Amino acid sequence: MAKAEAAGQSPIAKGGTKERILRIAAELFSTRGYHATGMAELEKATGFGRGALYHHIGSKEELLFEITSRYLRVLIAEGVPLIESDLPAEEKFRRFSSVVMRAIVDHLAEMTVCFREVYSVIGERKIELLDLHRQYEQIWSAILKSGVEEGAFVTADSLAIKGILGIHHYSYLWIKPGGRRSPEAISDFFCEMLLPGLKTPTSVSEIRA
Fold first, then answer.
1. Low-confidence stretches of the chain (pLDDT beneath 70)
2. Beta bridge partners of 38
3. Range(s) of the domain holding residue 52
4. Phi-psi category of 8—alpha, beta or left, where left has phi over 0 and alpha has psi -120 to 50?
5. Domain assignment present for 46
6. What is the pLDDT of residues 102-112, one digit of tens each?
């Protein structure tokens, strides 16, 4: 038994009740899948009865929306001031890549659910979630467009955006928190692989000179 429980304190310490439920639900949804996880599993994992769970989360669908939307909002909040900054496009690209990889590693269960269960969200919440995904993708698009305007990048084509997203996002399938390479090192590797294909011949030759 944990010390907090032995002392009669709530076992839900760090982050509060709802945060604990969100973390546990994200772990279950990421390992079992959203549709394969029932309220009975959530009750057992959290130690709450159904009534208490509904009090804190509203519904299983609302819980999924909060998990899938939370870190998109975080990434958007990080990305907007970055694209509005005076930094060169390549530096914006590198910094945002690092932000994304750090979020994936630090919140792997939540980000797994975010990427994998996006179409499990239904109704008006689905529209809201897809809009968040669009806002997030637009940050990458804005970075590439700024590079084209600078004469540093050759394209801001939507296909290039999809490739960048795929390389970063699918890391959730293989990445291991605490692994040999840090999120920043993985981001650097991705950038060294991606940026030469985005740079204009002039910018590449200037680097090699």
1. 1-15, 202-209
2. none
3. 9-58
4. left
5. yes
6. 999 999 999 99
